[in-house]
Amino acid sequence: MEPPQLEHTQLGSVAGRVIAIAGAGGNLGPTVVQRLVQANASLELAGRDAAPLDALAAGAGEVGTTAVDLLDPDAAKAWSREILDRRGRIDALVHMIGGWRGGKPIDEAPLEDWDFLGPLLIRTLMHTTQVFTAPLLQSGRGRAIVISAGQAQSPTHKNAVYAAAKAAAETWTLALADRFRGTGATANVIVVGSIVTPAMRQESPDKDFSSFTPAEEIAEAIAYLCSDAAASMNGQRLTLRGAS
Length: 244
Prior knowledge:
The chain has helices at about 30-40, 50-55, 75-85, 115-140, 160-180, 200-205, 215-225; strands spanning about 20, 40-45, 65, 90-95, 145-150, 185-190, 195, 215, 235-240. It is globular, with a radius of gyration of 17 Å. The protein contains 7 helices and 9 strands. The strands form 2 sheets. Strands 3-2-1-4-5-6-9 form a 7-stranded parallel beta sheet, with helices on both faces. Helix 2 links the parallel strand 2 (about 40-45) and strand 3. The chain has one domain (about 20-240): NAD(P)-binding Rossmann-like Domain (Rossmann fold).
């Protein structure tokens, strides 16, 4: 299959770019996929379960799906090879794999939460970025984008384990940005608060979501960071923390 031609005329365009999204089956998936599909990007979606990915891809155009456990480094490598075989290149990797455990004082927090959060938030990021680094460098304008949380920089004691995992993921991403320095590729972090999606607003029309981060804003930030308009942004935190 011939890779789509990149759009060079508009700095903010992602048309034709091959964007891989890890964790596309989560709450952010529908909004992000819709935004990038409307911008004529070619998407490759990954998640543990095929059903939500297939639902996102149905009638969406250039969207491929892969059910994969990214805790397995070999599976991550196979996913990257599958994309390269199908698309010919990879222009961006968006890591949206999330999860949370917490709510107890730091002196009571079950440290077993790390056994869940560490692999989920950090190891999946390590596995994907390691195997995607070479294709992103070969792209000439590769982009790595990680969704993080305000807890990484401003931790609260009832979320200590979660905050530590998010901080580690940010550190890894900033180290990747150092690897990309001077190559034309970039790695950046989008820092969000509690996320509100269109589905959540529909389910709770009377709830005040003003302190939440809208999924639509996150999708716009992803599109921006994937484009040439953000070519000078590398190793940065783009903070979207709602109105509070």
